[in-house]
Structures are given as C-alpha cells and as structure tokens.
Prior knowledge:
The protein has 9 helices and 10 strands. By secondary structure, the protein is an alpha+beta fold. Strands 7-6-10-9-8 form a 5-stranded antiparallel sheet. A 3-stranded antiparallel sheet has the order 3-5-4. Helix 2 crosses helix 3.
Amino acid sequence: xxxxxxxxxxxxxxxxxxxxxxxxxxxxxxxxxxxxxxxxxxxxxxxxxxxxxxxxxxxxxxxxxxxxxxxxxxxxxxxxxxxxxxxxxxxxxxxxxxxxxxxxxxxxxxxxxxxxxxxxxxxxxxxxxxxxxxxxxxxxxxxxxxxxxxxxxxxxxxxxxxxxxxxxxxxxxxxxxxxxxxxxxxxxxxxxxxxxxxxxxxxxxxxxxxxxxxxxxxxxxxxxxxxxxxxxxxxxxxxxxxxxxxxxxxxxxxxxxxxxxxxxxxxxxxxxxxxxxxxxxxxxxxxxxxxxxxx
Length: 295
C-alpha cells in the first residue's frame, strides 16, 4: 500500500511512490489544501517554501488555479486566496450527500425508505440547537458514509472556541475523536478490524490512542458506559463527549457530540455527559416519531 502524506483535511499519496497518479495534480491539490489552512491568504514565496516547490513551478500552478477559478488573487496584492470554484464544489458535495440514502451501518444495510443524510439533519437539528443552547458549547452530528465517518452538522456556540479543522463534510480518521469512536464501538467487530487495517492508529492529537489492543478495549468501554470521551486525542485543549443515536429498530444510525476546553471538562464533566446522553435519547425519540412511511 502506498504511503500517505497528510495535509489537514486531505490525504495524498506520497510523490515518490509509484502509482497511477499525476504529480502535477497532486501538487495543485497540496496548494489548495495549504491555502485552505490559511484563509488570510499566502504569497507565492510562502507557498513555495511550505511545500518545497520550485518557485517557477509554484507560479505555473498558481496561475493555472487562478485561471480555472480555484484560486483568487486580489488586485494590487501579492497573496492568493481560495477562489469561487471552491464553494461551487462544496455545494455540489453537500447536495450529493443530501440526495444519497446513507447506510445505517457499514455492512451496506440500507436505511428505511425515505431516510437520507439531509432528512436526518432536518429531523435532529432542533436537538442539536437545544443542546448547544443549554450547555453553550458546539454540538455535532455524524454518521457512516461509504465506510467513513462523515460530519453532517455543526451548531456553533457564540462564545465557545471553534475546533480547528472541522467542517460539515469532514471525513478524517475516526479513531481520534469521540464521534468516530462511538460509531466504531457500535459497529460489527469484523468491520472494525477491517477499518483499522486500512486506517492505522496514527497520532493526531497529544493523547491519540495508537495501540490497537488499547483502542479495542476503549471501544468495549464505550459500549458498556454508553458514551465516548476524547481527551485531546484530536486537538490540543479540545475535549469531546459523544453518544450513539439509535433508530427505532435498535441500530445505531448516527452519533451526537459536543466539544469544549480542558478547563470546562475538569469543572463539569459529569453534567456534560448527562446532557449529551439525554440529547441522544431525545434524538432517538424524534426518529421514533417520524412518519410511518419513513420507518
């Protein structure tokens, strides 16, 4: 299997590996991913240095991306920003997710007729808003999509810090955050083994669990207690609690979570656990109240 080069929010095959890939396209994608991490914009020299690209090559890539609409260069400025084609792609992605019936579990079992990602978000959005309003921390909703954990919705809290690198549509490694752990915990053990074979337990945050046996023990604990906790496993000073959302027939179809700082965790972790698990129960009740044709 080819090695991977990780850039925030995107995985690329390493450029020195043989394979049916175009290095020029990979370099262009690396440029886009880098600029996405710096919304204030970057100069050609900053991009060239960060990605170790020849300055001439960098100019050619940037000019091509600007002409194509994927990057923008403001008049009389020497910086490059993401261009108007980016929201177009994002909108198409979100619409595609909304139109697809999402698997209730990773063994290709279809959701009930009428269920889709957009329907699930619409049905449960009020639960997320109520949870965020009550605890004044961001809340999240995720589910499985094509064997990956997909972030479906985020409800921000005005005075709480945002978690860097998270966005609707995020499909990063599942082992390093509470939502991913809770969805893995309630998945078939055979799938979990296959998932971990393909997604190595790499270190993402300061406390990411990277030992497979320890991680599997963690999943067992999550099922026993009914929720998962991420203690700086995804990002420094970011803690999360997640709980499973059950469909009427008992299968886990999504996960609900909140994030907060280490200081908040130390002060009221038990109360936060109670709020998240109660919100997940509200979500289950909402799904039970769905119209009969959607069950």
